[in-house]
């Protein structure tokens, strides 16, 4: 059917591979986020000054006047995206969860357009945006990750993350974590026009979300919502940040606080993220295989209340593992190393 559609629209297509000649004669290239800038073909495309965009940028062109909540960050973005979507669905909003989670943004726009898109966006997807402008932008946090794709320079990775706000206007909202050192050390380098809606656990705020005495306070447009963190379905300090960010995003798109409160109590955690995997002879097994960098591993260990046998491995991405040293001494009684 798709092939027939292309014929009817007069669009040429290639199957079972792509010829370099056709690509290099294009006016514009939509690059998969998995393709690095080191790719010989990408270098040739850049050398010919052919415009390169991401699928996120392409989809945005056809999203019309739909609202967009864009969520990025090193850790917590998938959980925050899923929780934001859960809140919006619970409030009966016409919405979809797309991007780095679920189906692609472009497919959703083409096949089943919605009034609201909750979009998880990786740094690789942000690298090639031009005009993409989310009505609500969230940076959950920024820690060293994927440095192998950014010439092992943290500043390049940080720039990619902050590009989510570069096209925002004074009518938009920017949610960020005031407790995240890298975010706060760099925020003045990226001036923004949008309305700030910070989240924190360290102080009261006139606007934004904060925790005090085990209660979340959500302040926005002279209204306030409060909720005990014990009532959150998601447990752990890192999930308190995720819950604040998602609640703030939902508030920014005018979801009533009663619906937010109800949804925070009914959300089910995602697979591979601190997911209980059963118990054998009294030993609990927890699947946290999505903890693919130092900080996500740190938050997982920080939430543990029993001695841990840590199974880990993979490929070095340029992280500083000394950040785990003290927590490993405190919480871990054995390590099983796997992978390369």
Structure explained in plain terms:
This protein is α/β, with parallel strands linked by helices and 340 residues long. It has 13 helices and 16 strands. The protein has helices spanning 2-9, 20-24, 40-47, 55-60, 77-90, 105-111, 123-126, 154-162, 181-186, 237-252, 257-266, 294-302, 325-331, and strands at residues 28-31, 51-54, 67-72, 95-99, 116-120, 136-139, 173-176, 195-196, 199-200, 208-212, 215-220, 223-228, 275-280, 283-287, 308-313, 332-338. The strands form five sheets. It has a six-stranded parallel sheet with strand order 4-5-3-6-7-8, sandwiched between helices. A four-stranded mixed sheet has the order 9-10-11-12, covered by helices on one side. A two-stranded parallel ribbon has the order 1-2. Helix 5 packs across helix 10 (237-252) and helix 5 crosses helix 11 (257-266). 36% of the residues are buried. The mean pLDDT is 89.
